[in-house]
Give the backbone structure.
Amino acid sequence: MIPIPMNRLLLTGAAGGLGVQLRRRLKPCCRTLRVSDIADLGAAAPHEELRPAALEDKAAVLALLEGVDAVVHLGGVSTEQPWEPILAANIVGAYNLYEAARKHGVRRIVFASSNHVTGFYRQDEVIAPADPVRADGLYGLSKAWGEDLSRFYFDRYGIETACLRIGSSFPEPRDRRMLATWLSYDDLERLVRACLTAPVVGHTIAYGMSDNTTSWWDNTAARHLGFRPQDSSEPFRAALEARQPTLDRDDPAVAFQGGAFVRTGPFE
């Protein structure tokens, strides 16, 4: 069990959309928040350490994890891209992170996976983390690999990981698909805090979603984390349905859970 506040927490991807949100929300969890990214991190706030690092740089990542109690790993490519940047950040980078965690004795990682690991399930299906992977692109495949990597490091080295298959985390849902996938920023914070404070995490895969009326994902197997979402996409339903009164059922982005990701690429 990790004491809260812990001494030092590492947040990677701290300059990204969700990283910016968590950067200010996770400070009560630790005495020092170490933030990292390859993008501009701005000035260090009180009780922050700025450590820019490229995930594919093995030596830099090894130094990045020195003295860290736990990691919230949001870093890497977060959209469908050509293979080379995904390989560098999401494959090599994830390996470097777990190797550094092993060498420094870090015992818990919160790994930002993605709903795109299972994007080729249909929207009329309800699935659970134990169902087979059906990635909707190279990005989803890289996150599936990261989940398998974290499982290996738990089985062999005992490093606990909560893999969060994050849905669509924005201030509010943007379309009718997000009535099912939306994760409010407050619920994102609740989910990450639950993963950091749960007495036992083991190796857990959980979907990151609010308490939405429409749901494609069953989180029963992750209830031991103690995450209880408190927000819902339902207040936005009427406006979204008015904005999109009809949907083309022959459109793969409507048929499959991954939305537009199922028809992205190939990249030349």
